[in-house]
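Translate sequence into structure tokens.
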Amino acid sequence: MMRECTPMQVKMAPLIITERRIIIYLCSFMGGIIGLHCFSDSWLWGTRLMQITGAAICLMLGLLVLFIWVYLRGRKIAVIGPFLFALFCGAAGFNLAALQYNLHQSAYLTAPSEVKITAEIFNIDGWASDRSRLWVKIIETDSDRPQLANARVRVTSKNVPTAATIGAVIEMRVRLFPPPRRILPGTTDFGRNARVADIVASGFVTSSIRVLAAPEKPDISLLLGMLRAAQAKDLNDALAKPAGGIAAALIVGDRRFIVEPVYDLFRKSGLAHLLAISGLHMGLLCFGCMAAMRFGAALLPVWASHVSIHKYAAVVAIVIGLIYVCLSGASVSAMRAFMMALLVILAVLIDRRALTMRNVALAGFVILALNPVALFSAGFQLSFAATALLVMAYEKTQHRPMQRRHWLWRYVTGIIIASFLANCATAPFTAQHFGSFTPWGVIANMIGIPLTGFWIMPAALFYMLALPFGASGIIAPVLELGIVMLIHTAEFFAELPFADSAVAPPGYAALALLVMGVVVGYACTAPLRFAGWGMVGLACLIGSLKPLPDAVIFAQNRSPTLVAASAGGELTIYRRLSAFLIDMAALRLGQHADPEKIQHCNEFCQHQLRRGEAVAIVLKRHGLSAACDDRNPDVIISLATPLYPCRTAKPIYYFTQNMDDNYLLYRDKTGINYVSSNSGSGQLACLALQPRQC
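Result follows.
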């Protein structure tokens, strides 16, 4: 029987924040954040003025919404309340993003500098087989640059002494560089992340590291960091390698002890998300504790019949989750996972439905309000995409007949459907950020997630509980066996054909259209719902038709260097590049940087594009004569301005502006187009004996 609404509920109906409305408000909030970042970094000098303007707009819209809520409820004009509140959310997102930039407006290093510093370590990260990354706060330096006074910098080093722990004071000579700008179009903006983290410079250590003092009177953050580092080292030493490094990553979020080949196995198999503190780990821990407490209380019927056991279990789960966040370093992913779990548990405490899109949207509001730049991180996009799609599917199917089937059938089908939906939700964002697709990830997660949830994480919990009593050695073999099985699973699926397929990034426009289509399809009714799913199909079509670039040019703060992809899967590199830049270029080119398929050239090299066209690429002007005399290439791409056309009637494509950025080159019938990292797009000029040759 349908419940009748009270007169007050009828009056307040236009302003009630329903589940669909809060999703729209969240999208408007994110739109405000994106609106600020749509402007170039050079425009951000005016964010202080825009912050004042945004605050005024927020205040005006907030007062209007409050006026409608208090004085105009029940009137027809009240229907504009949700619309004004959506505008308020957009202005608030814009203003909070500008505020975040202004709060972190430090004096950044503007030119490379080699200095000797005395600094205190506040974080350590890195791979066991590669360089370690040190986040330090400078105490003293021999440089007269004011930007380095009491500044925070990030440096890498191959040989870090064991005594150089979090909180220790060290002395070293470093080579520092300004925070980098966006490396390639569509990739992570490391400079923006450095700005938010108050990192004024980054570089590498050029001398040995000398430890001057051990950690002395650390604050709570340093104390937790030291505890986390000590726990990670204990796990790595207690278990056989590489299981110890995996255990340290799973339990305390420290990935320093994971060797890079093992991490590549997890990445290729689609199980890399298990190595980061995510909603999966937090959910298994918190809700596992709740289930254990409720099961234990069921053994005491007298107590369980008089006390709301599930609420006491929820409070304990919150406390355990908070402790776990602190021990894992309070990273962005851990905080995001805890916020999601907290909202679900709070819903249990107030006797509301736990798994709803309202809770997902509220978690998004809280996380983005505290850190607006998290919207552009891969972790936020991947976790929220997977969570949102899973919750949507749960809301649509929770009353279906499958819920009345046998528990084993529900479990198996649930794992299959959840793995499939999670991979579908994260695939576009994985392609955008990493340029890869793992087709075997669905099957691998069907094995990896239950193995992690029902074996590794419970064993890890018992290991931590037994550690103070000196009984961890009993649990260690069980934990090690589970991790070894997980590694073998990752190895099996990583070695299958097409395990790590390189794909073209779909682009942020296609992703925005995809997200908008899902929101419209879920939150609206027909016929808008059908329009939303049509937008999803259009976004998939646009993303799949986006071509791969033919070459990558690195000219940002260095002499021009080019990486090109050939039809045979080879990479042609003009001059030497770091392994990191080669990997970045290979991902954007839709290939993998196989050392056996890389050829190096100096000034002039011949190359064949994917479409079969032969091209000669010249770095400097004196290499044009050799390229012009060669009859094999169809066109010539010159990174220097040519003085005269080729006598052999070959067109020469070149840049007309100064090359101070990184570029992607696309060859089509109209010529050669480019897209830069920070300054837009355009088309290369063409020089030939006759215009028709271009």
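Note: Residues 8-16, 40-46 have pLDDT under 50 and may be disordered.
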